[in-house]
């Protein structure tokens, strides 16, 4: 039923008022996104929506955000640690040990500025969340209780329907997509949701925060701030592509930086570290493996749908970097302090028990059936090749021989190429004697780039026992009295010289 443009406006005195109040004719405010609850997850989602410039509103029944923490926990002490000093200045690494801060671009909004206690008081969390919302100017409607939610089917809507929200005053709000962050809105402890955090019953309804822990219950940290701050970001990225055609953020780099990119992420990434087994980094190879795209913190249970969900293509193979514990390390009846629980040798890395990086290589993107029927207790389907980086007590995977060299060899075997770095002299020699040059020489030396070696560089690598000795022609290294600062003239010919001393074969390849 509709109104004609030429319809008369006269009639009984109350007719015009009745028409204006008729549910079918009154148009409630329509927003793209509605977020229920201004707790940590709701504010985190509001932050990402605001940074993206989206139309959204947050509805909070209390007069301020984080009302849960005004009453709970009863003993008023948070059990989430507040480690203010880690010994490092890397902000991303420090988030590994910051279990209370939300993600933002403002360094002032880190929880360590609100409490010095290792286990903070709950009042500090209330104050922190209030400042987070106020400082960033998040659009939160306080004292608004959403009492009723219904669906209004419409083919024009994003999900085939609109969400109709009615508050305690009877005011109606209309939304294209709904985020539910209230932890006590379900009959059971956790709702049934997909690995993308979307409700199995209503398309466009996403469950965030503590309630989303059903995805990784007793597996990871998704039920806590230091976990769901990353899953909220993943959901936001999924919806940015679904509704606004924004591809998943990625960094494109030459293949020569593959090893260093992985080493950097496994040593500093906080989302990869906290949401182990749930969020993983994905590396998409380009044609002929000359370059790659690096995607961070993708929900690995959605790997089969990666192209659809991210807008990226995986036609030439991919690597997945996941953090895992040993499959038999912990459990209700397990003794985590058993003898020989620590693995220290590279050849035994696959038996590592503590949290460590695992790299999966797939020639082709796995299918949904392969993901669904993967081996028991495996986070991913059986790969073409797999590599475990041996566990480290300090979670520091930077040892040249124990960590980096085995990783590089694994990547080289998968790609059938040489990922080492070379001096310009070596690239020149390869160009004259080989049919196929290493990527480092192709992308560097042949493009008028590269590092020309000097006497001090050669001496340093020999004294460090990293490589074999190559001394300048006609000179003996042991007769040279030059100091490390002296340099051989650029472009001087270098030829292989005698070995200064026996060098381990592993070190020759660094």
UniProtKB/TrEMBL annotation:
Q: GO molecular function terms here?
A: oxidoreductase activity
Give positions of region: Disordered: 475-510
Per UniProt, which keywords does this protein have?
A: Oxidoreductase, Signal
Q: Which InterPro entries match?
A: Auxin_biosynth/cation_transpt (IPR050982), FAD/NAD-bd_sf (IPR036188)
Signal peptide (UniProt feature, chain positions): 1-26
Listed Low complexity bias regions: 489-500
PANTHER family per the record?
FAD-DEPENDENT OXIDOREDUCTASE DOMAIN-CONTAINING PROTEIN 2 (PTHR43539:SF23), FLAVIN-BINDING MONOOXYGENASE-LIKE PROTEIN (AFU_ORTHOLOGUE AFUA_4G09220) (PTHR43539)
Protein's name according to its UniProt entry:
FAD dependent oxidoreductase domain containing 2
- What is the organism field in this record? Homo sapiens (Human)
- What gene makes this protein? FOXRED2
């Amino acid at each position: 039923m509709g109104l004609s443009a030429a319809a008369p406006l006269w009639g009984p005195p109350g007719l015009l008022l009745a028409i204006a109040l008729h549910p079918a004719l009154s148009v409630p405010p329509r927003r793209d996104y509605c977020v229920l609850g201004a707790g940590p997850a709701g504010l985190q989602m509001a932050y990402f929506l605001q940074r993206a410039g989206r139309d959204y509103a947050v509805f909070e029944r209390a007069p301020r955000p984080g009302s849960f923490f005004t009453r709970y926990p009863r003993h008023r002490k948070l059990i989430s640690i507040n480690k203010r000093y880690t010994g490092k200045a890397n902000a991303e690494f420090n988030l590994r040990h910051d279990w209370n801060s939300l993600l933002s671009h403002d360094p002032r909004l880190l929880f360590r500025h609100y409490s010095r206690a290792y286990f903070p008081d709950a009042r500090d969390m209330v104050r922190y969340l209030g400042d987070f919302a106020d400082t960033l100017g998040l659009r939160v409607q306080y004292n608004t209780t959403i009492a009723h939610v219904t669906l209004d089917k419409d083919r024009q809507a994003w999900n085939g329907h609109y969400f109709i929200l009615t508050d305690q005053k009877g005011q109606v709000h209309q939304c294209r997509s709904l985020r539910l962050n209230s932890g006590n809105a379900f009959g059971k402890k956790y709702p049934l949701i997909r690995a993308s955090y979307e409700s199995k019953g209503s398309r466009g309804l996403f469950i965030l925060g503590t309630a989303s822990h059903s995805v990784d219950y007793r597996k990871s940290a998704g039920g806590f701030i230091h976990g769901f701050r990353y899953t909220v970001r993943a959901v936001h990225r999924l919806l940015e592509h679904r509704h606004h055609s924004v591809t998943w953020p990625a960094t494109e780099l030459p293949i020569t930086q593959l090893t260093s990119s992985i080493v950097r992420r496994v040593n500093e990434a906080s989302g990869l570290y906290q949401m182990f087994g749930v969020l993983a980094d994905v590396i998409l190879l380009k044609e002929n493996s000359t370059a790659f795209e690096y995607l961070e913190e993708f929900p690995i249970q959605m790997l089969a749908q990666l192209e659809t969900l991210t807008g990226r293509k995986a036609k030439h193979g991919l690597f997945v970097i996941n953090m895992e514990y040993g499959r038999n390390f912990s459990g209700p009846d397990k003794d985590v302090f058993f003898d020989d629980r620590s693995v220290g040798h590279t050849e035994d890395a696959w038996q590592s028990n503590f949290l460590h990086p695992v790299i999966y290589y797939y020639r082709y993107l796995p299918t949904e059936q392969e993901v669904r029927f993967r081996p028991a207790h495996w986070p991913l389907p059986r790969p073409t090749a797999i590599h475990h980086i041996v566990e480290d007590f300090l979670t520091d995977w930077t040892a040249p021989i124990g960590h980096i060299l085995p990783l590089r060899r694994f990547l080289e075997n998968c790609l059938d190429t040489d990922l080492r770095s070379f001096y310009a002299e070596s690239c020149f020699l390869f160009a004259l004697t080989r049919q196929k040059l290493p990527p480092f020489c192709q992308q560097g030396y042949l493009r008028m780039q590269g590092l020309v070696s000097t006497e001090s560089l050669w001496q340093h690598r020999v004294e460090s026992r990293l490589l074999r000795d190559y001394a300048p022609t006609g000179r003996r290294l042991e007769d040279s009295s030059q100091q490390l600062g002296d340099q051989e003239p650029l472009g001087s010919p270098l030829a292989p010289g005698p070995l200064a001393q026996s060098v381990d074969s592993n070190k020759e390849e660094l």
